[in-house]
Amino acid sequence: MEPGGLGRVLSDLLQPDNALIQQATAQLREAFRHPEVLPQLCQLLAGAPDPQIRQLAAVLLRRRLTKHWRKLNPEEQDRLKSLVLGALQQEAEHQVSVALAQLAALLLRHQGLERWPQLLQLIQQGVRGPDPHHRQISLLVLSSALESDPEAFAPHYSALLRLFHSALGQRGQPGALYYSLRGLAAMAAGLGSDHLNLTRSLVPKIISAVRQLIPVNEVHASEAMEVFDELMESEVSVIVQHLSDVVGFCLEVASNRALGDALRVKALSTLSFLIKLRGKAVLKQRLLPPVLDALFPILSAEPPPGQLDAEDQEGEDEGDEAQTPKHVAAQVIDMLALHLPPEKLFPQLMPHLEPALRSPQPYERKAGLMVVAVLAEGCGDHIRTRHLQALLGVICRSLADESLVVRSAALFALGQFSENLQPDITAYAGEVLPLLLSYLEGVELARGGHLAKAYYALENFVESLGAGIEPFLPVLMEQTLGTLRGPGGPRPKELAISALGAIASAAQRAMGPYLPPVLEQLRRFLPPAAPPEQRPLQCQAVETLGVLVRALGRAALGPLAEESCQLGLGLAEGQDDPDLRRCTYSLFAALSCAMGDELAPHLPRVTTLLLYSLKSTEGLVPPAGDTSSFLLFEDEEEEAEVEGEEDLDGEDDEEEEEELFGLSVESAYVDEKEDACAALGEIAANASVAFLPYLESCVPEVFQLLEFPHPGVRKAAYEALGQFCIALHRICERDPSEPHATALQRLLGLALPAMARAVHRERERLVAMAVLEALGAVLTACRQEALRSPGRLAELCGALRAVLERKTACQDDGLDEEDEEDEEQAEYDSMLLEYAGEGIPALATAAGGDAFAPYFAGFLPLLLNKMKPSCSAAERSFAVGTLAETLGGLGWATAPFVPRLLPPFLAAARDADPEVRSNGVFALGVLAEHGGEALLPHYPKVLALLAGGSAQEPSARVRDNVCGAVARMVLSQPQALPLSQVFPALLRSLPLTEDFEENKTVFRCIGFLYEKAPQQVLQQVGEVVRASSTVLGTDRLPADAQVSLLSLLRHLSAHCPTEFQAALLALPPDAGARISGALGSA
């Protein structure tokens, strides 16, 4: 084809005529089969009079050369590089220049700077030269090259920073400023300490440059603000020194209602990200007051007359509204709650919040309720202990507000409280549930968005009620089944089906009587042939079916289990819908809980589906504005390779990987991957040996997702990896063999180092918490098997210690160590420490006392440091609880640590906070149990504290722990105690009323005394029988302890029949009958 002919083809592609485009596409595919197409495209690139043809030629060249660059000989490569440089210097049309710059960036990625120094010369000359147009083109090329391959420029970063200093100082050149900021953002991740001063001094110029862009092009200004996010994430602390200026600028933009929503949203998003990464610095620099001063007017702004805020509008897709400044301002408050200590946030927040909640203006009341709602997650403990009753009262009263927007916000707040303030909020079920049900009855079915918020509040409230839901079950079922049976569109029915799942989750077996009518309704929406408009209903019905399967168990399900499995397989295999597949995966996971290894016949199909979703690249979306994917010509690449142009050096795979960089993934596909991961882990744990043949193919796929860009998928992958380890360990226990043991060590060798690395490197706290939880579960299950590899114990201890020392990536708040004086921290930061703390006892148990003692010595000062009076009650409780639990794993190796542990344990047992006191008393008991003779000299002091405190102790849990501690002292050193006084006092303190786990220790103590000092027990037969009657045949005493207790009672009835019968007669009739019946059947 002649150049003129190719030019006509490209011209036809640009016409608004589908037939012409299809014809031109076929012609272009044919042209690409011939080698002369490249020089023809080059001619068009340099000489076509139509700029659209020049632009399209550059795009097609870039697309072609992505995979075929190395097929050009060196002379052809050099000619092409010269052509591109010449075209860049001559081109006057901006869009063509953009396409040329992207083509130049591709060539540079192939060649490297050392083989194309002319490009760097062009950039340097253009930036320093007098011509503004050449300066803009040079910076465009530089930013494109940096975005394509920033590492290629790493040796030149200092020179580039100086170059950007110069470029950002130019006024009246918005294009040059824009491309400078994009280039700087692209290289931010690679900046190191050598560049710190240069980069810090750039920040004022960056702010000035964005400010200049705003009146010229808000879209460019918004994109340029990405540089703040990139610099905040870089390894060097650049922003903190200019934090006040950056925060002030973001608030200035966000508060300007004359600007477009997109730019204001970007400013607020930058502020939110800054708080997430540098929250402590915001506090330290006293920036919280101006932030709150600016946010509340944004939150309470009224929409234009005759309009509503997006979340208050009614429509089919009420969950899909675009972000607005008001939404993102609420997210900033949420971020403050998640990342600042509540003790610092609330005193600054309440002077804004209280007037808003009392305001005569409905949008100010709405703003107050939105703030209350988003505080619930990050400040849950603080609200539970200090504000729950007052704030819940405000929310409930707001459900009767005259303004619909206020009522809607109150429903959202109630849903957030219900989700995040369990179990405390369930105490208000008697007031809240009737209010919600009455409210639901009055909502018009046509108000889908408002109805969704009402159901959201109802679901979250009932889900954690547990057995407390039973009095409300009839009215709840009448409401939800009535909605399903009655008229109305699909949305109300979808919400009712979802509510059924929440009700079933709480009710568990009590849901049994309602199963037939529920199934009757669900079956209406489950058929595979359901019309597309019923797909959301179908997905929700599958999800609720899974919840029912979990709640009712195998026995209650009968043939429904097999029917549900076939249904799920049919839907997943027959419909190409990520949401539907995701729901079926949850169903398969639920079925594995109910069916166990009975799921085996279906595992080939189930695992095929799950692995498909893990491997799938469906839903990958290129970054906005990327024109590289000329998908029209994708087939041409494949056809060329079929005809013999196969890649000989493996370059294609490398290029494809590089092209994936920067892609985002549509949320439905992310959710599908996350649920597929979760389902695989759960099925592995429940199907046991039946899953073993599939483990080898599943592990690599899950392992690859540990680096997935979305945190939810990473979290699910780590959890699944942990479950794989636990499942394989169980198989080793059930069927010991050398191959199984080898497979377990290989898997642990993969999983545990990955978890240790993630603890150090993971930036998302929720993912880090999931990793720590999975690690603890693996250690608890696998014990010494997890630590067979040399160095593994040190590696895992190092990871946990890093959390306690606040040295992990997700704890980096940008402050120097000397600035970390404040003991208070955000609740989520405390939770992270607690997850790490739970791993320490698991490690001690797995390693054994002698091996773990040196590491315990390293943990000890870190934990004792958190028991200081200046620390919060939560921290003191965490530290003493962690130490106490760890002593169980240390065993007799505890003795050398007694002098360091006893004083803080005694102080904790006297603490003003009941939870700390409870843990302190428990710790003293465990210290007595494992401290041996090292604690003997201190027995009188410990006993006096326990006895004195118990008499006046208001907390039932503390009193229960006193019983447990005394029992442990008896078990350890009975000769050191006045048993004739201690033992009767212990029996009189029974039954335990809150901490039933201590029953096992107490009754083990009674059995122990009967063996070692039987007279002590025989003198107290009546009290022993009375205490036993409160636990025998209940779930308050484990099964093995029940057996031991029955044996003791049998001995007592044989040795002291008269006293024993008298004791039985003194009991309430049902208790006496329970003991007699147990003894008779034993």
TrEMBL record:
Residues 309-321 have a biased composition (Acidic residues). Residues 302-324, 636-655 are annotated as: Disordered. It holds the Pfam family TPR_IPO5. It is found in: Cytoplasm; Nucleus. One of its GO terms (molecular function) is small GTPase binding. GO terms for cellular component: cytoplasm. The keyword Transport applies. Residues 24-90 form the Importin N-terminal domain. It comes from the Eukaryota. HEAT repeats lie at residues 901-939. PROSITE patterns: HEAT_REPEAT, IMPORTIN_B_NT. GO terms for biological process: protein import into nucleus. InterPro entries: ARM-like, ARM-type_fold, HEAT_type_2, Importin-beta_N, Importin_beta, TPR_IPO4/5. Keywords: Cytoplasm, Nucleus, Protein transport, Repeat, Transport. This is Importin N-terminal domain-containing protein.
